[in-house]
Write a structure and sequence with these properties.
Chain lengths: 579, 265
Amino acid sequence: MVTTLDKVDVVTVGVGWTGGIIAAEASKEGLTVVGLERGKNYETSDYQHVHDELKYSIRYELMQDVSKDTLTFRNEPDQQALPMRQLGSFLMGDGLGGAGKHWNGMVNRFLPCDFEVESMTEEKYGEEKLEKDKGYHWQNWGITYDELEPYYTKIEKTMGVSGEDKGTNPFWGERSEDFPTPPLLKTPILKLFEEGAKSLGLHPFMLPSANLSEKYENPDGETINQCQYCAFCERFACEYDAKATPDVTVIKTAQKSDNFTLRLHSNVTEIIKDEDDDSKVTGVKFTDTVTGEEFIQPAEIVALTSYVFNNYKLLAVSDIGEQYDPETEEGTLGKNYSYQLHSGATGFFEEKKFNTFMGAGALGMALDDYNGDNFDHTDLDFIHGGLIDQLQMGARPILNNTVKGDTASWGEQFKEESIKYYTQSLSIGGMAGTSPHKNNYLDLSTDYNDIYGKPLVQMTFNFHDQDYARFEFLNNRCEEIMTAMGADSVEVKPTPENYDIVPYQFTHNAGGTIMGADPESSVVNNWLQHWDRDNLFAVSAGSYAHMSGYNATLTVGALAYRCAEGIIEYSKSPGRLES
Amino acid sequence: MAKTPDEKQFSRRDFLKTTGVATGGIIGGSLLGGLVGFNLDGSSSEEASTSEDTASEETGSGQQQTGGINDNSRVFFSNDTDFDTVSAAMERIFPESESGPGAIELGCAYYLDGQLTGQYGFNSKEYMQGPFAEGLPTQGYQSNLNRRDYFMLGINKLNEEANSRHDANFADLEDGQMDEILTDFESGDVDFGVPAKTATSSYFFTMLRSATIEGAYADPVYRGNRGMAGWKMKKFPGHQMSYIQYSEDDEFHEIEPEPVFGMSH
């Protein structure tokens, strides 16, 4: 038996950054909003004992329980996809706040050239540079940096982002305002990077951070505290409320309004299509994960605000939109799944000891000289690039056992070296997105289901030539910088043969439900409104036409503010929103 | 530079002052937690407290009382030979050396014993539905076994190999003989007598290596890292409220480690 609940104006599927932003903005405008969150709530008081590397970082306390729902994976379309039985390469969040709860808080805006990558590349280098004949799918996003800029400013203010003056980095797109709070402290490790990079004529800057340098009250009246550099940030939650997370900002704001109802333990399994009007949906079906009861939540507007894979999945299992097919390259749903491939160099210092165990999630310096189209690609076999950074997140002992490349992974030498280099090595990284490619996509598994009987999402993904060329280029740049930092020896990251879903890389999954200028090439328009169903919106990093050389969250937040504005506009005059 | 008690006090007060956080929960958990102590049998921290130096010396003998339970209590490994086998293998992976104690003194096998009784042992937060198939290395764990069964298969195989090669139990072999067997495990050269999709010696070795490192460096509440000796070797200060006051300092700070539940107070 399925119980039908009272109709509301807006239902959000998932309550993290995107659901929280939409709930806060729509409820302020007088719309009734129900937020359906499949996980539980966490309070700050739940984090009294959070400095536990094993529980949070290794056993994934705050992450999605993949016994219930996971995905299947293969590198190539002709292989058999098998379940991702354990978390590894990326960590989907669980509970109120989602992945926004355990994130590190590195908040760079994407570059202007990201949003117009296809047209700008064509104009500057000619169409052949896009290598469409080799299966690459670079395309514009249907929005420009300038159009998104006000929303970037809005999300930065919500988070209270700590960063340097807007003129510091010559490669940033134009910023209408400075960062809300000053940058974090510049530690000796960061100063070493800064000096090394400057000696090479590069332009280092303090990473914009959502771990705040000082206590801050955001425009909604929510307070975020000063970061204590306690070194337990990524994969952990902040016991000090010093990291901008959805639950201390936008969700709190939404909860101040009587118009917002949060419903925990509610797993949405289907979007319900309007039987009489093929341009509409009528609500969602969900299961109460405690009792197993099924409900229908009718709504004027449905907003898909869960993680990349679940947003894709709900559209696919509800048969909304046309599934992408790599053979014909037709269909848009599932297209352009993209990720990142990170380069890097490790420097070994025989005489110097660093306080590597201190840090904050987004404490770091970075440079954009080799990101986007900030350097000439005429003679290179790839476009785009990556952010190069020296982070100081706080190294914890189980996961940090750096040894030299020719050292065994166990035994006495391993032990001695891993102890020594725990404090006597530094690593810099080159964070590059992968090129969207015709063989990288999402569809549904025909062999494996989740506990609700719905098929698992099936990921087909591998690195391609452009990715390897970009990787090696950035590896070399990292090596130059680390050498300039005075390391006694430097080793670069080995080139992977294939994408491997086992070791942790980054939770920067993107694409599959991409935004764009027309329904032939994208799933949603630049208001994040579905091309086929006017009252259905989908916003996540799945909206990205490609993954950039930055962390993913800030742009998700900016798009969510844009989406919220679209939803409010739609509620006033239902129909297609003009771009 | 060692941190003095005065500095510690200062940093905590300073933290409260600078952030304005006044939640009782945080203070109760992380500050008072260190004073009140946490004991598995509910006894007061004073009765159970020992100096860290004494603890790390005495745990080697396996007789130290920690919070009311004996240091050599076990709940998963019912058989001494199995336990001795896994202990000896872990010691070869993380041996006693110039830097300090190895896996046996750190209690790594006791750590594993505890882990195998819970979520980790039963793979309960992992997707364990069939059909099972042998995957590519890039596709990760595809075994139908849970870790309890996988570990027992591997531990028994270590002993079998020892007996067939040297006519002795694994724990009684010379270091070099153990290393030879472990190297063959690592490279996948030891036949487990089951299909590769069920178990391989190399994957068993990977799990054993990870468990050893976790046991050396996890918070002592998990029964390894005894006397926080793993952290002391590595100069990792464990659970500290804040490093904000040190973050810009050029000198290296050696800070006495603190466990999450303040067991050493």
